[in-house]
Amino acid sequence: MRVGIGHDTHRLAEGRPLILGGIRVEHARGLVGHSDADVVLHAVTDALLGAAGLGDIGDAYPDTEPAWRDCESSLFLRETLKRLNQAGWRPVNLDVIIFAQEPKLGPVKAAIRDRLAELLRLEPGCVNVKAKTGEKVGAIGRAEAIGCQAVVLIEQ
Ligand code: MG
Questions:
Q1: How far is the CA of 21 from the centre of ligand 1 (A)?
Q2: CA angle 70-71-74, nearest 5°?
Q3: Does residue 149 or residue 68 have the better pLDDT?
Q4: What is the H or E stretch that residue 40 is in?
Q5: 82 pLDDT higher than 90
Q6: Which of 27, 87, 94, 106 is deepest in the core (most CB within 10 A)?
Q7: CA distance 139 to 134
Q8: CA distances from residue 65 to 16, 53, 61, 84 in whole angstroms, order as listed
Q9: Which residues pair with 7 in a beta bridge?
């Protein structure tokens, strides 16, 4: 068994859809990035790459690649899982914290968990999604950005 950690932050801006864990969340602003800027899937992908000793998402999927402009980040996660499977690894459980002052994520936490479980081919009980505000402190607390941390366990 091996463990991996992932972290990501993206800036909020008007004129972008807000996608968290592959789920479209109703909000006046969305996250800015080269892809769909799904901060949750980026952190989870990085955790999986880390657990398997395969580097990081920036090396694997550089933001200079035109093919990934505005693409769904589930693409990165699916391809990463394929790489893990080829190396004989599969996920055991996933724990995620989303840091967002707004919008309130309580109503969408279960949908994000179910989507993550589906993408990782895990039972929903093996995936946990927590949401925290930034207590109005720092960039996240001022609702300028959303962050995410993920920890994943994998086994041979
Ligand atoms: Mg990112």
A1: 12
A2: 140
A3: 149
A4: helix 39-51
A5: yes
A6: 94
A7: 8
A8: 20, 23, 7, 22
A9: 149
- Averaged confidence pLDDT in the chain: 96
Task: Look at the block and give the residue holding tokens 């899937």.
Answer: 41
Spacing, Cα 88 to ligand 1 middle (Å)? 26
Contacts of 147 by beta carbon, 8 Å cutoff, 6+ apart: 7, 8, 9, 39, 98, 99, 100, 140
Q: How far is the CA of 125 from the centre of ligand 1 (A)?
A: 26
| pLDDT reading at 63 higher than 90 | no
pLDDT of residue 19: 98
Mean pLDDT in residue range 118-129: 98
Residue 81 has pLDDT above 90, yes or no: yes
Instruction: Tell me the whole-structure pTM to 2 decimals.
Output: 0.97
What is the CA(31)–ligand 1 centre distance, in A? 10
Question: What distance in Å separates the CA atoms of residue 105 and residue 50, rounded to the nearest whole number?
Answer: 27
